[in-house]
Amino acid sequence: MSWQAFVDTSLVATGHVAKGAIISIAGDSAWATSPSLTIQPAEMKVIADIVSGNEAASDKARAEGLYIAGQRYVVTRVDEGNIYARAGREGVAITASKQAIVIGIHNETQQAGNATLVVSALADHLKNTGY
């Protein structure tokens, strides 16, 4: 399965994620994204720094917000390679695997918990297949 197919079928097609992306664990490239989601290089680097355990990056995101495709999200939780953040009634769940970071954005009609489960399941699948 291609990286784009993972985003399209394992994230968005579930109905629990409105937009998704898979980026490298280093935060230096996007492997696949939803058509309406453009994550800037600086945004990817910040996400990668946070999931790698960089406390300074986590503290800055908590204080100033986490930006994804220009949208500011308020960080609600960071733990062990996971980031959860909200922008009003929308939100984002981010989970790292060995070589990738899975990003799932849910809209106001979707449940944060369901989006988190979908993102985590894809990250677990990638871990189990060596990614």
TrEMBL record:
Keyword vocabulary terms for this entry: Actin-binding, Cytoplasm, Cytoskeleton
Example GO BP: cytogamy
Pfam families, sorted: Profilin
UniProt cross-references to CDD domains, sorted A to Z: PROF
Protein name: Profilin
UniProt-recorded Gene Ontology molecular function terms: actin monomer binding; guanyl-nucleotide exchange factor activity
Cellular component terms per the entry's GO annotation: cell cortex of cell tip; cytoskeleton; mating projection tip; medial cortex
Location within or outside the cell: Cytoplasm, Cytoskeleton
Lineage: Eukaryota, Fungi, Dikarya, Ascomycota, Pezizomycotina
InterPro entries tied to this protein: PFN, PFN_euk, PFN_sf
Family: Belongs to the profilin family.
